[in-house]
Amino acid sequence: MHIVLLGGAGYIGAVATRHLAAQGHHVTVVDGLIYQRDDDPARLLPGATAFVHADLRDPLALRKAVAGADAVVHLGGLVGEPACAVDERLAVELNYASPVIAAQAAIEESVPHYVLFSSCSVYGQREGTVDEDATPNPLGIYARTKVAAERTATAMLTGRAAVTVLRLATVHGRSPRQRLDSVVNRMTAQAVWTGHIPLNGGSQRRPLVHVTDVAAVLAAVVSAPAPEPRVFNVGADVRNFTIAEIAETVHAHVPGSRIERGPERDEADARDYRVSFAKLAATFPHASCPTGLSTGVREVADAVAGKELGDPNQDEYDNYRGLIASRRSGRIAMLGSPECDRLYEECAAIDWSAL
Ligand SMILES: NC(=O)c1ccc[n+]([C@@H]2O[C@H](COP(=O)([O-])OP(=O)(O)OC[C@H]3O[C@@H](n4cnc5c(N)ncnc54)[C@H](O)[C@@H]3O)[C@@H](O)[C@H]2O)c1
Questions:
Q1: Residue 98, ligand 1, Cβ within 6 A
Q2: Do residues 97 and 336 lie in contact, with contact meaning Cβ atoms separated by under 8 Å?
Q3: Which residue's CA lies nearest to atom 2 of ligand 1?
Q4: Is 34 a pocket residue for ligand 1 (Cβ < 6 Å)?
Q5: Which amino acid residue places its CA nearest to atom 38 of ligand 1?
Q6: Which of 2, 75, 138, 281 could be bridged to 117 by S-S, CB 3.0 to 4.6 A?
Q7: Which fold has domain 2-179+209-242+276-291+321-354?
Q8: CA angle, 319 as apex, 172 and 325 as ends, to 5°?
Q9: Is there a contact between 330 and 34 (Cβ–Cβ < 8 Å)?
Q10: 274-296 confidence digits (pLDDT tens)
Q11: What is the DSSP secondary-structure string of 223-271?
């Protein structure tokens, strides 16, 4: 199959490219490399059939890139609340306008399957266990742009192409484009670098998934498009951990590290949810995210200890700091095109209290 990965040079995309190429697929990566200092796609993306350096808000570039594809996968965007809060209008352009513009390109080029990466963050703070039918409760701009993109892209594509939304658990593990700003990778890298594992409270629950398992789910999904729109939580029921349990696992794998307990912080990320991944396991039993938390922890710990990765506090590992640096250097900016402005107004008009 010919698969186009929009945002395919990112943390997940680089691993997915390798995985899909190893299965014999032709993979075209489209990315603006908004964080990378090193622009060499051949180094970052072994296995990619083609690389297109483009902005994912550019309708013509997207049409050209997706023409003739069997599936287009949108995994670009601005990831995480801290990065999205830097400039909310930019966040809407990257996380709402871009997937909508890509959906339009897919329709115009008759691409039969559109896959949109979303996040379990859409569930926010919840009692009990949430599945795909739960009403979203997005707590911040990142989660809201994700919910809005899911809805609009699905409405546009229904009846025209297969559409699959993947709501990912928090991802961990090694990638050629390493992020160290999500909970497992950050805690592990800091434990190796400083010996400390700060833990403030830690009772919130986070579902986790290893990055290679996400790639395997994507491979399964693109190989089996379905006529009806579908949404899957991506992860495994047994991997809904509390932050304290994550800290204990990191401590167990990083010799000499120490957990430093403090009180729960008021300003701490309020996301707290237990997610059901039963639908994914039932639909794709051969891609039900078998990799344990320890695997990701060991990979990141070994990479930091072995100096494959540098100081974990560098901008390149952190989307918030990376975005600030990229804005300063002009690698990324608000576009303010008529289409982006129209879609910004559309997203801003959503009444979140009426979900
Ligand atoms: N990593 C996680 O823990 C996680 C969890 C839940 C959901 N997700 C979702 O998975 C997807 C991929 O996440 P990731 O961790 O690989 O992120 P990432 O930041 O590593 O990758 C995003 C990529 O998109 C590119 N990009 C973004 N906007 C662009 C634009 N306008 N033009 C050109 N390129 C652009 C960036 O250059 C980058 O390579 C995102 O949709 C994210 O919301 C990730």
A1: yes
A2: no
A3: 171
A4: yes
A5: 10
A6: 75
A7: Rossmann fold (3.40.50)
A8: 150
A9: no
A10: 999 999 999 999 999 999 999 99
A11: HS--SS-EEEEES-GGGEEEHHHHHHHHHHHSTT-EEEEEPPPTTS---
Pocket of ligand 1, candidates 4, 5, 6, 11: which has the most ligand atoms within 8 Å of its Cβ, to mutate? 11
Tokens of 27: 């993979």
Domain ranges for the chain:
2-179+209-242+276-291+321-354
Q: Please tell me if the CB atom of residue 5 comes closer than 6 angstroms to any atom of ligand 1.
A: no
**Which atom from ligand 1 is nearest to the alpha carbon of 9?**
39
- The answer to whether the CB of 61 falls within 8 A of the CB of 37 is no
Ligand 1 centroid to Cα of residue 44, in Å, is 15
Q: Tens digit of pLDDT for each residue in 197-239?
A: 999 889 889 999 999 999 999 999 999 999 999 999 999 999 9
The structure's pTM equals 0.97
State the pairing for strand pair 205-210/240-242: antiparallel
Out of 4, 6, 12, 170, give the residue to mutate to test ligand 1, the one with the largest number of ligand atoms within 8 Å of its CB: 12
Q: Which residues pair with 102 in a beta bridge?
A: none
